[in-house]
Design goal:
It is built from 11 helices and 7 strands. By secondary structure, it is an alpha+beta fold.
């Protein structure tokens, strides 16, 4: 009988928490999407009209859910447990033998179910949707970019068509491209030259190509090998900033592959290393954020102002989020391993939460 009762209580608690997390997620994603809508509305023009904007917002909704989920999980759990506490349901559960440890385990199980789905989406769905959405938006705005198969980018730059095999994001002002194929077109639209560069940079006004092989399609033409080459460009730097996928939006598989590629070629892989560890630690960060708010829920059960405790719990969670971002900002600068610097805030907060939960009766 106790086993059946415990199963029912577990199911009821998990369902209530999932409902609260779902409603908060829906609200936060809606607000986030509204902000994006207002920002995108200022960029309408060309073929990028209301329909294209709505499609873009729909395609990027999973990424927004992933971004706001730490807050949604924290607020949803606190509201869900707070509602149960205000109705004395948590007290009744504990009186029925459902102790605090079992309540905590069900809370973590409910959040964990959401994390499994989001981690899977971040690995196999969100990167593809995000890159395709950005490429389609810039194609509609400028007509100068298109995403091909396997992540290839096609650009139109004056009388040239460029196929970019690999884009490396260092920061907004440092974008490196590898495996560049350039088709130079004549006045009749026929290809006059084909260039292949192992690497390239765009300085805002021109392409700087390295290790170039140039083939002329004319009958009397031949192959020319050049160490470097400069080509004037009519592309805006903002085009690359909008279209090139940032490291944080890549899957862990792609991040690890990019990190190894950069290290083999002696290039700076810090951004991709940071993004890899952040993605790996993201579930732990979410769980730590939820745990640090739970002591204030249980404290509110014994006080007359549970709303104040919920507010404090959310505030502490937000402080933890700020500290996490601070650790990400100083990672790579402090004399400590990158993986440890990024992991430390979650470990510290988890330990503090466990101590606070253990001390309260």
């Amino acid at each position: 009988m106790k086993i059946v009762q415990g199963t029912r209580l577990s199911r009821y608690l998990i369902v209530q928490l999932l409902k609260a997390i779902g409603l908060v997620s829906l609200l936060l994603v809606g607000l986030y999407t509204l902000v994006e809508l207002l920002r995108e509305a200022r960029s309408l023009g060309g073929d990028y009209q209301a329909v294209q904007m709505i499609v873009y917002l729909i395609q990027t909704t999973p990424r927004r859910l992933y971004d706001i989920f730490p807050f949604a999980a924290l607020i949803g759990v606190l509201i869900g447990l707070g509602a149960l506490a205000s109705g004395n349901e948590l007290v009744a559960m504990r009186a029925a033998g459902f102790d605090r440890a079992r309540i905590l385990s069900r809370v973590l199980l409910a959040v964990g179910l959401c994390l499994v789905l989001l981690v899977a989406a971040a690995e196999w769905m969100i990167p593809g949707l995000e890159s395709q959405a950005r490429a389609d938006r810039e194609q509609a705005r400028t007509g100068q970019i298109q995403q091909g198969r396997e992540g290839l980018l096609w650009l139109r730059d004056q009388n040239r068509m460029l196929r970019i095999g690999l884009s490396i994001w260092i920061d907004e002002r440092q974008l490196t491209f590898r495996d560049i194929q350039i088709y130079e077109l004549g006045d009749t639209g026929q290809t006059e030259h084909i260039l292949h560069a192992q690497s390239a940079r765009h300085d805002g006004r021109a392409w700087q190509l390295e290790s170039v092989r140039r083939l002329s399609t004319a009958r009397s033409g031949g192959i020319e090998n050049l160490d470097s080459m400069r080509l004037d460009s009519g592309l805006r730097p903002e085009l690359f900033e909008a279209a090139i996928t940032r490291p944080r939006l890549l899957s862990m598989t792609d991040l690890n592959a990019m990190k190894q590629l950069l290290e083999r070629n002696g290039l700076d892989a810090l951004r991709y290393q940071e993004a890899f560890w952040q993605r790996l630690y993201w579930p732990l960060t979410v769980l730590a954020m939820v745990l640090i708010g739970l002591p204030f829920v249980f404290a509110g059960m014994r006080q007359r102002n549970p709303g104040l405790n919920l507010f404090v719990g959310v505030s502490v969670g937000l402080v933890f989020f700020v500290l996490t971002r601070l650790a990400q900002g100083v990672a790579g600068v402090v004399p400590a391993p990158l993986w440890l610097t990024l992991l430390l805030p979650a470990l510290i907060v988890t330990m503090v939460a466990i101590i606070l939960l253990a001390r309260r009766p």
